[in-house]
């Protein structure tokens, strides 16, 4: 089943840029609203794949940390610490 949230996120991450923090915040809230935990985790995977440096990824994590904690979204690296 294809959900509009997933389809729109795929479109968003298809470009060679990372969405703004505001767009990512809205996407995380939408994932929570429809109770789609895997998509919320994948949002952070998409960020990690699209940024140019690890420092940029850390900046996004810092910007979204409060919301991530509020919504209870774990990072893939937290869920699977032994994978790289």
From TrEMBL:
Record carries keyword Membrane: yes
Residue intervals passing through the bilayer: none
Protein name: Cytochrome c oxidase subunit 6, mitochondrial
Coiled-coil stretches: 50-77
Keyword Membrane: yes
GO terms classed as biological process: mitochondrial electron transport, cytochrome c to oxygen
GO MF annotation terms: metal ion binding
Source organism phylogeny: Eukaryota, Fungi, Dikarya, Ascomycota, Pezizomycotina
Any single Gene Ontology cellular-component annotation: respiratory chain complex IV
Localization: Mitochondrion inner membrane
Keywords: Coiled coil, Heme, Iron, Membrane, Metal-binding, Mitochondrion, Mitochondrion inner membrane, Transit peptide
Similarity comment: Belongs to the cytochrome c oxidase subunit 5A family.
Membrane topology note: Peripheral membrane protein
């Amino acid at each position: 089943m294809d959900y509009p949230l997933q389809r729109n996120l795929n479109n968003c991450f298809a470009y060679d840029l990372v969405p703004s923090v505001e767009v990512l915040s809205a996407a995380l809230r939408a994932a929570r609203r429809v109770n789609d935990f895997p998509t919320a985790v994948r949002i952070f995977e998409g960020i990690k794949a699209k940024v140019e440096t690890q420092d940029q990824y850390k900046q996004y994590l810092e910007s979204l940390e409060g919301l991530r904690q509020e919504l209870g979204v774990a990072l893939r690296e937290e869920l699977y610490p032994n994978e790289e």
